[in-house]
Specification:
The mean pLDDT is about 90. This protein folds into two domains: about 120 residues, Alpha-Beta Plaits (2-Layer Sandwich), CATH 3.30.70; about 170 residues, Beta Barrel (OB fold (Dihydrolipoamide Acetyltransferase, E2P)). The longest helix has 21 residues. Helix 8 runs parallel beside helix 10. By secondary structure, the chain is of the alpha+beta class. Strands 1, 2, 3, 4, 5 and 6 form a six-stranded antiparallel beta sheet that branches.
Length: about 300
Amino acid sequence: MSTDKIEIKLTYVDDEYVDLSNMSVKALESFLSVTNSLKNISESVSDQFTFTIKNGSAYASVNGLQNDIGNIYSKIDEALKGESTDEIVTSNLRNIQKEIQNSVFKYQFFYGDEILDTRIRTAKKITKKRTKQLFENRIEIISGYFNQIGGNDPNYHFDYGNGNKLTIDCTINETEELKEYLYKTISSLVIKKTFEDEQIKPVFEHKSIIEDELVYPFKEFLINYYETKDLIKRLESIYDFIDSLEKKEKYIELFLKAFKSNIFNVSEIKTILVISKSFQEKNENIRKYRDELLKVYESLLIQLR
């Protein structure tokens, strides 16, 4: 069988043959759940795949270059062995496993000559492998009195009095933009890197100045975002947050600038790109920041191949 596709067939439901042109609600819901989960796993590898749905039994396949399809299989294989650190893969493969393990449904799942449905059905609990991290990166908002900028390594300082200062790294170009805020109390959107070794001080990387009226809603969003451990729910929360706003464009600009880093999950960056796409034609800043983030996204996809 071909190795340029991964195939799924739902052949029987309640011992009755499945016909794609005349499916029961139960069969349809299960089939859509499985195919959507396969789509999500595929997108974690690349966005260059195509999908096929054919009649007969309920049949779906993801199609692409052999190397790319092989990468999808490798991610599935890794998750089935309990070695995956990718939440998108493990959570969606659990969804597939749930349907395959349901005795009501008879699924077939193929990659070339390999029958995957048996492995998925009998796999132990599919979970993301825990990795020991020596540090953690998070987007945060910090505020302070901005009283110094410069240095051999570009940075600026917030002064809290009594010798208590906080240093934020930035680029040379950003120092020029920041000068207009000197000697003012401001809020900055940053990436905060904290270390497991508490003796090492956190490192802050500047991403954007944030207007006062935007601070509280965004800060509340970030608190909830990082309290949510499930990546899919995190991505859904970005959509929900943007949908709830009146001043969507200002927040979208902040998201585009904040996530412009290869430290983030490719799915997080893709979500920001998808949300911002419809705004780029009317907003020059969004178009500019989106183009910059797109380069980061494409670079990450190359690294994943």
